[in-house]
Protein: Polysaccharide export protein EpsE
Organism: Candidatus Dactylopiibacterium carminicum
Amino acid sequence: MKLFNRILATLALLALLPAVQAQVPREYLLGPGDIIRITVFQNPDLTTEARVSEANAVTFPLVGSLIVGGLTVPAAEQRIAKALADGGFVRLPQVNVLPVQVRGSQVAVLGQVSKPGRFPLETFNTRLSDMIAMAGGIAGTGADVVIITGIRGGKAFRKEVDIAEMYLHNTTDDDILLAGGDTLYVHRAPVFYIYGEVQRAGVYRLERSMTLIQALATGGGLTPRGTQRGIAVHRRDAAGNIQTLKPGLSDTLQADDVVYVQESLF
């Protein structure tokens, strides 16, 4: 009866394994916060579910503390098997490590991306562009700048990377390597507002170096009652006060500018 129960437990584990491994790549590096289930074939008493500590270690029966953080799943299996064999506890041990919860080597991607969430660092050299691609890319409402925060060398780390500039001017040094625990944030794209005597009043994305005449074109142009002489731009200054400006058509707009086109008096 005991042998039969062991066989059932092994079959259940094998049935579960493909689904979990499909979500966690074999080259994934274990890290602090990960929870793993360790089993040894024909030794059910050694089955252990453990959390990888901040010191990258887990405690396993018979062998005590073992460093598994920074190892792939196969490498962790080999290290545990070697410890069991070297200690003479199990002859030719067959060890299986199954990630139950993956937390330590994840990056959070927030804000204006297609698929915000937490994503594993599948390899040790995952770069910013790789992670943005995993999140489905920057959404149409997202800005070009990605803000990266995390820890480097025990100190708080923050960097802003202009994705468009990185590719337009080949500044590949900005495509930095990511580390477990990093957070990427994409703010909404800057916008401007246009109303009054224009064909399509509303809120629009402010493109780089966008001029007033380009903003008018985005709004569909003036209505027959509109006049270029009656165009005003309302802009908030550093103190939070609203200024009313009379810019030229070739002047550039700023984020959150409000463009108003007056009706012609004649």
Notes: The chain has three domains: 2-101, 106-188, 191-263. The two ends are 100 Å apart (CA to CA). Confidence is low (pLDDT under 50) at residues 7-23. The first helix runs from residue 2 to 23.
